UniProtKB/TrEMBL annotation:
This is Alpha-galactosidase. Residues 1-17 form the signal peptide. The active site is at residues 474, 542. Residues 44-278 form the Glycosyl hydrolase family 36 N-terminal domain. The keyword Hydrolase applies.
Length: 730
């Protein structure tokens, strides 16, 4: 009774504040173009009544019907903001708990909400919910990034019941989206073939995207998707939501077309094998679900996420990145000091900023000479590197480049001193035989001692080598036989592993805020905005075949910006070095080749390309991306990056099919330029000895012309990749 009185008072306070109809409260979470509107019914049930374009007049939200569709919602909570299980709910819940007294039901009533400006252009709305029968509360957080049109939402759960409450499902987000039809693009893959899109119409019932792999969680399916409303969205047209869960472990995203043919979306940690025992007065905070809504196609949705990521998420997202020469494919495990110091000079000759020493530099009792041994023993291998890392840092610096290393600190080889000393730090089941992924096992990061060990490894190396310029952080195994020998709650392992990883990263970032860190996971097995809070860049795939990469990079680009996408030129694939270089330029460029094997022209081309890249990289990294021609449905691919000031653009086009006379048959219409400005087009990355037909006649085009009529980059079998630099000028 007391609770209901309080509820009434708080509702009426909010009603006064929001000027809505008596008995109803509208909570509008708005960005520049988007609104998510919550309505609290007279009974205190919070529901979603709008998700889409923002209405010009906020008062109009009060006019929105409770449900736009004909038909009966028997429960009146199909569109709950956080659907509780066990009561009158008939559909997928966002929350399922067993209370201290064993009651398996919950009810969540609105208590109040508050809105704060937490940073320039960032508004946080918190909605407080409570179970009327239990001292059990849920807070829903919605952080609205105004300019970027991105909403980040998460929830927290707390109670003061007499004993532990068992959380069986605890979603981050529960959205409700009414439309006539829904088209989901999700992505699947495996090692070296990451991010293959599949678009499907959603039919009545449930479609689930998830992973149960624990670590390297995105190996088969990343937590990112595109959802088109009413009809499949195109690049420049259509309504689309781009969503992704910021979590580096097991996730579950559910799409449920409900009996009214509205779409219910529930995203969060995967409840699989993850019951969470919540003690009284402790708070469980879920990871964040991020989404952006666009009514101007997928292109706009991507640009929103890119801007948001650069400005608000990725460390130094608007800063610099280092070009590098990696030795993995050049040497694999077979190197010594002499070989490496020669490679430093090669790197300098090529013109990169840094040399990255990959796997194989560590372990002595069980030397890391192949991928069966040594993980966990992070001491320099005395045979390969008798003078240690410090010597290499100095040698690289005196050759004029920085030095970085590969680490895989979450892992352990069965043959390692670490495993011998600390078998209880390893994730495994005592009565099952060990089963390996890439011949290795995963350390139990839910154990604080393991967290200290991992932090200590990285901090130790950085303390000893303060000018070490880069770390490639790998994670090559999934979790088999999931069990922690030390965790009092074995079902917390999957969750506390990721929390443990984030704790380590948090501590490392506090001490080393500007260190460039590459997020790698046997290729692209871990690419999400949870980890990208700490990492400056990610490795999309071990597959660096130029042609394959066009597709892989295209598909990552729906969600992640070029500045964070590491692309290396290697010996994979049959394409020319020009083709592979042009492809790698569409992101953060690096090399993994034997420089001394390049012929004169190849070397001259590469040196020139690096100089061009240094001149134009800011346009690629910080510009707006326009995907002009899709390789999925065409024989060419074409991608444009336009600077925010619209004074510069970089345009990349490729031949991806090999049918007779395929190529860019007609002009391609550009996007994102200023129609009022004039532009010149110059072909760059022209291979020594060849001529560019484009550079023969230097013409001036208006932005209007280039966007209305277009321009033909002249891609064909003889010109399989073309890079054009577009500059404002008369
Ligand atoms: C993973 C990475 C590679 C390389 C190897 C080293 O496969 O994706 O780039 O670092 O590990 O073992």
């Amino acid at each position: 009774m007391k609770f209901f009185l309080l509820l009434l008072i708080s509702i009426s306070l909010n009603v006064i504040a929001n000027g809505a109809a008596p008995g109803d409260t509208q909570i509008a979470i708005e960005t520049q173009h988007t609104a998510l509107v919550i309505r609290v019914s007279k009974d205190g049930d919070p529901t979603i009544i709008h998700l889409g374009k923002r209405l010009q007049n906020g008062a109009d939200y009060a006019l929105l019907p409770d449900n736009e569709k004909h038909g009966e919602d028997y429960t009146k909570i199909y569109n709950s903001v956080y659907t509780p299980a066990g009561g009158r709910n008939l559909l997928e819940p966002a929350l399922q708990v067993s209370h201290a007294d064993g009651n398996p039901s919950s009810d969540l009533k609105y208590v109040r909400h508050e809105t704060q400006n937490v940073a320039d252009g960032v508004v946080l709305t918190t909605v407080f919910l409570k179970d009327p029968q239990y001292p059990f509360e849920v807070k829903l957080y919605y952080k609205a990034y105004q300019k970027e049109d991105v909403i980040e939402q998460w929830s927290s759960i707390r109670h003061t019941e007499k004993k532990t409450v068992r959380l069986q499902k605890y979603a981050s987000a529960n959205l409700y989206i009414p439309a006539q039809h829904y088209y989901l693009t999700h992505f699947h893959g495996d090692w070296a073939r990451e991010m293959n899109p599949e678009e499907i119409p959603l039919t009545a019932g449930l479609k689930v995207l998830d992973t149960k792999l624990g670590t390297r969680a995105d190996l088969f399916q990343p937590p990112s998707f595109l959802l088109s409303l009413n009809k499949p969205a195109e690049e420049e047209t259509g309504e689309v939501i781009a969503g992704t869960l910021a979590w580096s472990g097991n996730y579950q995203i559910q799409f449920e077309v409900d009996p009214l043919r509205n779409l219910r979306l529930i995203a969060g940690i995967n409840p699989y094998a993850s019951e969470y025992m919540l003690a009284p007065d402790k708070e469980f905070v879920t990871p964040a679900f991020l989404f952006t809504y666009s009514n101007a196609g997928k292109g706009q949705a991507s640009r929103n996420l890119h801007r948001w990521a650069r400005k608000h998420r990725i460390p130094q997202g608007e800063g610099n990145r280092l070009t590098l020469l990696n030795n993995w494919e050049a040497t694999y495990f077979d190197f010594n000091e002499e070989k490496l110091t020669a490679l430093f000079k090669d790197g300098k000759k090529l013109g990169v900023d840094l040399f990255l020493l990959d796997d194989g530099w560590f372990a002595n009792k069980y030397p890391r000479n192949d991928d069966h041994t040594g993980l966990g023993d992070w001491q320099e291998n005395k045979q390969k590197l008798p003078h240690g890392l410090g010597y290499l840092v100095k040698e690289a610096e005196s050759a004029g480049i920085k030095f970085g290393i590969w680490l895989e600190p979450e892992m352990v080889s069965p043959k390692s001193e670490l495993y011998e000393k600390h078998p209880d730090w390893v994730i495994k089941l005592p009565n099952r035989s060990e089963y390996y992924f890439r011949n290795q096992l995963v350390l139990d990061l839910s154990n604080p001692k393991v967290q200290d060990f991992v932090y200590g490894v990285v901090d130790g190396i950085l303390t000893k080598n303060p000018t070490l310029g880069y770390i490639k952080w790998d994670c090559n195994a999934v979790i088999y036989n999931a069990f922690s020998a030390t965790n009092p709650n074995p079902s917390h392992l999957f969750i506390e592993y990721v929390q443990g990883l984030y704790k380590v990263m948090e501590k490392l970032r506090a001490k080393y805020p500007t260190l460039p860190l590459m997020l790698c996971s046997g290729g692209g097995g871990r690419v999400d905005y949870g980890a990208l809070k700490y990492f400056t860049e990610f490795w999309p795939s071990d597959n660096t075949d130029g042609l394959e990469r066009i597709f892989i990079q295209w598909n990552y680009s729906y969600f992640f910006p070029a500045i964070a996408t590491c692309n290396h030129i290697t010996d994979w694939g049959k394409q020319s070095i020009k083709f592979r270089t042009d492809v790698a330029m569409m992101g953060k460029m690096g090399y993994d080749i034997v420089v001394s094997k390049l012929d004169e022209k190849e070397l001259a081309f590469s040196q020139q390309a690096l100089q061009t890249y240094n001149r134009v990289k800011d346009v690629i990294w910080k510009g707006d991306l326009f995907r002009l021609v899709s390789p999925q449905t065409n024989d060419i691919a074409s991608v444009l990056y336009v600077s925010e000031k619209q004074d510069k653009a970089m345009w990349f086009s490729y031949l991806v099919g090999n049918r007779y006379r395929e190529g860019s048959q007609a002009p391609i219409k550009l996007r994102g330029l200023n129609p009022e400005k004039n532009y010149k087009i110059l072909e760059v990355n022209v291979y020594p000895g060849s001529n560019s037909p484009i550079n023969r006649n230097q013409m001036v085009y208006s932005g209007d012309y280039l966007m209305t009529v277009g321009f033909n980059p002249s891609v064909d079998a003889r010109r399989q990749s073309v890079v054009l630099e577009i500059t404002e000028g008369n």
